[in-house]
Design goal:
Largest sheet of chain B: 2 strands, antiparallel
Structural class of chain B: mainly alpha
Mean pLDDT of chain A: 90
Order of helices and strands of chain A: HHHHHEHHHHEHHHH
Strand content of chain B: under 5%
Number of helices of chain A: 13
Number of domains of chain B: 1
Strand order of the largest sheet of chain B: 1-2
Largest interface: A-B, 44 and 45 residues
Largest sheet of chain A: 2 strands, antiparallel
Mean pLDDT of chain B: 87
Distance between the termini of chain B: 47 Å
Radius of gyration of chain A: 19 Å
Oligomer: heterodimer
Low-confidence stretches of chain B: none
Strand order of the largest sheet of chain A: 1-2
């Protein structure tokens, strides 16, 4: 293995860019870019969590946006009931996501392949309808979060820079955690299950139990992203759980490179910047984005990370 | 009594509509092993085509017929230009590529027809209530949907099980290489099947159009229901799709109609009226969960692999 590789260099460049972004924003006076990138970092966190089950675990969840909603509603509902402390809101958001993931996972993991894709999709839709039916918490129209989570002076979420660095720290922490998980015995078993479930089971590993734990961990990570997202937009609505949002997350993972550590971050950055860029050119940006996705699927094996890897070898 | 019969028929009508959509989906999956999320877009296109052609020709039936042809052609073009290259790829690739197609279709519709919805008015002879039992009337149009869908189901059954093309389709589903080696043009066959599925989706869309408005994204919610149906019925099985569609249509309609009253008997009024809408939209997903716990492969798994 060479010491220098293109993909490593690009990844490092991107990470340095993300860390230094507030400085650029401060120097150039461009405030919008901070708002945009806070969103990108949060969704990158969600995409990284999806990558844990999809890329490493081989579980193609098409309902991952449900956790964004659950985490967000945990923050929004607690805030409305007068519980403003982030020390309560965030753990509740993560715990609620874990419980949902446990139930959904236990049911969905009975199936495999395309059934699994559709089941997770259907359950996320169910969560969407449940949220739409919450009349007390805004129903269809969503719920405004009037006050961001309060971390009693430790960190001020209403400060744009502090909030950005909180999100970025969460992202790095989650990626570090995923790295540790993937290289642990547990992670190796989960990856083994992706490659050959029957063989792993024959060796004596309880396949479903390992997969379920992985599924729950991923859900908790995405629940954290949901809690951050609700703080970022000061608003949570059923729309964050809509199935096209799950599709967006999947696209980010695939675009960046499934089963790579930093691929989903790369995917989120490129996908959301592309969306931003195209929507500035034309109102009908999806007209370009749609076929672009098709082309990426048809010709871009391994996503951006795969492409960079090939550059390195060629 | 009147309400029960009416809701029962509504459930049947909705179920039949869902069957048309699910049949195309399960056919394409069962035979080409292709997960087509854009199936809902074809449903939407069918409705838009019907509304446009009906306005042009001034005739509902002529418009519907033209729209049926248009969705068939659209399906064939879509298959030949894009989806053909996805056969044999990972299911995840199908999901992403067809997700891209949904974005494209929604945006194309916005560009061509504008963001506001269209209406597809019914001709007078379809709006009259028809007596079905002494003292009970039911809208002729909803009755027509049931009849048309039943006819389609019958034709589909006869076509797949009793004709030469149907035989080739079934053979192609079980072994693609072998039937190709026997000199059958499998590519053409697949294109035809996809076109057929598209036309079925279009038919469902245009039949639903006069009841609801024709709007962007109309195919997405109903697509998820179609997914639930083919998961319950067993992917690739038309018989399973038929039974599961009626089942889901009934449960959804009857749940929405009667659950609020039932809950009111148990809970206080306010609690019931908040819980009922959420619970009745959850009902079919609960049903799906139960089916999966008991039979992970669906109720009528197509006997493949």
């Amino acid at each position: 293995m060479k010491a220098f590789s293109v993909s490593k260099a690009v990844t490092a460049l991107m990470l340095v860019g993300l860390v230094l972004l507030p400085l650029y924003s401060y120097l150039s006076g461009n405030i919008f870019i901070m708002t945009l990138f806070t969103r990108i970092v949060i969704l990158a966190l969600a995409a990284a969590s999806l990558n844990l089950i999809m890329g490493f675990g081989g579980m193609m969840s098409f309902g991952h946006a449900a956790y964004l909603g659950i985490g967000g509603y945990a923050v929004g509902m607690l805030a409305q009931e007068g519980v403003g402390s982030g020390f309560i809101q965030f753990p509740v958001a993560i715990a609620a996501s874990a419980i949902y993931a446990l139930v959904i996972g236990a049911l969905s993991l009975r199936t495999r392949g395309v059934y699994f894709i559709m089941i997770t999709l259907a359950f996320a839709q169910m969560a969407y309808y449940v949220a739409s039916g919450l009349a007390r918490y805004g129903g269809d129209d969503g719920l405004t979060v009037y006050k961001r989570s309060d971390f009693s002076g430790l960190i001020n979420l209403s400060n744009r820079t502090q909030f950005y660095y909180l999100c970025l720290t969460c992202l790095f922490a989650v990626i570090f955690l995923i790295w540790r998980i993937v290289n642990s015995r547990f992670g190796l078993v989960v990856q083994g299950l992706r490659s050959n479930e029957q063989r792993m089971q024959a060796i004596g590993f309880p396949a479903k139990r390992y997969q379920l734990v992985c599924f729950v961990i991923s859900g908790m990570m995405c629940g954290l992203a949901g809690a951050l997202l609700a703080n970022n937009t000061d608003f949570v609505s059923p729309a964050v759980m809509y199935w096209t949002r799950s599709g967006d997350l999947m696209v980010m993972v695939i675009l960046g490179g499934m089963g790579t550590l930093f691929g989903p971050v790369m995917g989120a950055v490129v996908y959301l910047l592309l969306e931003e860029f195209l929507s500035q050119i034309t109102e009908y940006w999806a007209l370009i984005m749609g076929p672009l996705l098709l082309l990426i699927v048809l010709f871009g094996r391994g996503g951006i990370m795969g492409l960079l890897g090939r550059l390195n070898r060629g | 009594m009147l309400l029960v019969v009416e809701q029962f028929l509504n459930g049947l009508q909705f179920g039949m509509l869902l069957f048309l959509l699910a049949a195309g989906l399960t056919l394409v999956f069962g035979i080409m092993d292709l997960v087509n999320l854009a199936h809902g877009s074809l449903y939407m296109m069918g409705a838009y085509f019907a509304a446009t052609f009906a306005a042009w020709t001034g005739s509902f039936l002529l418009g519907a017929l033209l729209a049926l042809g248009a969705t068939l052609v659209l399906g064939i073009v879509l298959e030949m230009s894009a989806l053909r290259h996805l056969y044999g790829r990972d299911h995840l690739d199908h999901v992403l590529a067809t997700f891209g197609l949904i974005l494209f279709f929604n945006e194309a519709v916005r560009l061509i027809w504008g963001p506001a919805g269209l209406a597809l008015p019914l001709p007078a002879w379809l709006t009259v209530p028809v007596p079905i039992l002494p003292g009970i009337h039911y809208p002729a149009y909803r009755l027509a949907i049931i009849v048309v869908a039943l006819l389609v189901a019958l034709l589909l059954y006869l076509g797949v099980m009793r004709t030469r093309i149907g035989m080739l389709i079934r053979a192609g589903a079980s072994n693609r290489e072998m039937i190709g080696a026997l000199g059958i043009n499998i590519k053409l066959l697949y294109t035809l099947v996809f076109g057929l599925g598209a036309a079925l989706a279009g038919l469902a869309g245009m039949m639903q159009a006069p009841i609801l408005t024709v709007q962007i994204g109309m195919g997405e919610n109903i697509l998820i229901l179609a997914f639930v149906i083919i998961v319950i019925g067993g992917i690739g099985s038309i018989r399973g799709a038929f039974l599961a569609a009626i089942f889901v249509g009934m449960i959804d309609t009857l749940g929405r109609a009667f659950l609020p009253n039932l809950l009111r008997q148990v809970l206080s009024g306010a609690a019931a009226s908040t819980a009922a809408p959420a619970l009745s939209s959850m009902l079919i997903y609960l049903l799906m969960a139960i089916v999966l716990v008991v039979r992970p492969e669906g109720l009528f798994p197509a006997n493949r692999r």
